[in-house]
Amino acid sequence: MAKGINYGQLMHKALRQLMAEVLSQVAREGLPGKHHFLISFDTTHPGVDMADFLRQRYPTEMTIVLQEWFTDLAVMKDRFTVTLNFGNMPEPIVVPFEAIKTFVDPSVEFGLRFEPHEVEPGAGDHGGPDGGDEPPPEPPASPSPQGEGEVVSLAKFRGKH
């Protein structure tokens, strides 16, 4: 019998399902309006599949942008695949939902952040401060086209059109 209800874990599961639904809609219908996504993920997570040169360039974390150029977006129960352009070379990437750290749609100021946390038996089973509740999301680090990557605050782009 369970010692308690892990609300944090249940919330993360529901939010990952929301992400999957959004990506499935985009796979079927394309991106509506000005919507676009910044998705950062743990490149060391089991099931992440990407070219060796990308893994060398992003050994621990990578942020991809789904906006103007992407193809072959497909969503499965536990992961998604997409082909992106890296230096005029199309490269497929497989990302398990469990590997995702942030999912942001700056066009509507929506974002989710998933922090890995280990729960010891009997600790944090009931939500609240120890139950995995997350603070509001922050913009992810986004790789620049020329270099490694830098943290860019979305605030500096707001109001500029």
Q: What structural class do you assign from the helix and strand content?
A: alpha+beta
What overall geometry do the principal axes of the alpha carbons give?
Answer: globular
**Share of helical residues:** 10-25%
The side-by-side strand order for the widest beta sheet comes to 2-1-6-7
- Sheet with most strands: 4 strands, antiparallel
Radius of gyration: 17 Å
Distance between the termini: 56 Å
Uncertain regions: pLDDT < 50 for 5+ in a row?
Answer: 118-153, 155-161
Number of strands: 9
| Number of helices, where a helix is a run of at least 4 consecutive DSSP H or I residues | 2
Sequence of secondary-structure elements: HEHEEEEEEEE
Give the amount of beta strand, in percent.
25-35%
Give the averaged pLDDT, no decimals. 77
Task: Tell me what the structure shows.
The protein is of the alpha+beta class and 161 residues long. Helix content is 18%, strand content 30%. The strands form three sheets. A four-stranded antiparallel beta sheet has the order 2-1-6-7, with no helix packed on it. A three-stranded antiparallel beta sheet has the order 3-4-5. Strands 8-9 form a two-stranded antiparallel sheet. A hairpin with a 3-residue loop joins strand 3 and strand 4. The protein is globular, with a radius of gyration of 17 Å.
List descriptors.
globular; 4-stranded antiparallel sheet; alpha+beta; 161 residues; disordered C terminus; 3-stranded antiparallel sheet; 30% strand; 9 strands
Which secondary structure elements does this structure contain, and how are they paired or packed?
Blueprint (H helix, E strand, L loop, with lengths): L6 H23 L7 E6 L9 H6 L3 E6 L3 E6 L3 E8 L2 E8 L3 E6 L4 E4 L27 E2 L7 E2 L10
Antiparallel strand pairs: 1-2, 1-6, 3-4, 4-5, 6-7, 8-9
